[in-house]
Amino acid sequence: MSVNIEGLVLGASAFLCIGMFHPLVIKAEYHFGVKIWWAFLIAGIVAVCGSLFVENTYLSAFLGIFAFSAFWGIGEVFKQRQRVLKGWFPKNPKRTDY
């Protein structure tokens, strides 16, 4: 009997990406506001291209998961701004674009 760990590896990589992007979105909105959304878009596009051309299945899958986590981050940056405006997260006192 052989044990397949592919699902666990991909699940762990998805967990890692989501766990990484959650605080990244919060910090990015705090320091840069919603104008940082394009950085998430570029990171996602680069990761999609990498996923398409990398031959290693694990790395390709990880890049795909990373790409869609970055795309998800675009919407979350705008939602984070709304959460800041509601007072759920602190405003950056150096920024005046609220």
Describe the structure.
The protein has 98 residues and is mainly alpha-helical. It has one domain (9-85). It has helices at residues 6-32, 37-53, 57-85. The protein is elongated and about 60 Å long. The N and C termini lie far apart (59 Å). 18% of the residues are buried.
Compact summary:
With 98 residues, the protein is mainly alpha-helical. It has helices at 6-32, 37-53, 57-85. The mean pLDDT is 94.
Provide the fold topology.
Layout: H1 6-32, H2 37-53, H3 57-85
Largest sheet: none
Number of strands: 0
Average per-residue pLDDT, rounded, comes to 94
Tally the helices: 3
Shape: elongated
Total domain modules: 1
The radius of gyration computed from the alpha-carbon positions, rounded to a whole number of angstroms, is: 16 Å
Structural class based on helices, strands and sheet pairing: mainly alpha
What is the succession of H and E elements?
A: HHH
Straight-line N-to-C gap: 59 Å
Query: Low-confidence spans: pLDDT under 50, at least 5 residues?
Result: none
Helix content: over 70%
Instruction: Determine the strand fraction and express it as a percent band.
Output: under 5%
Which keywords apply here?
98 residues, mainly alpha, 3 helices, 0% strand
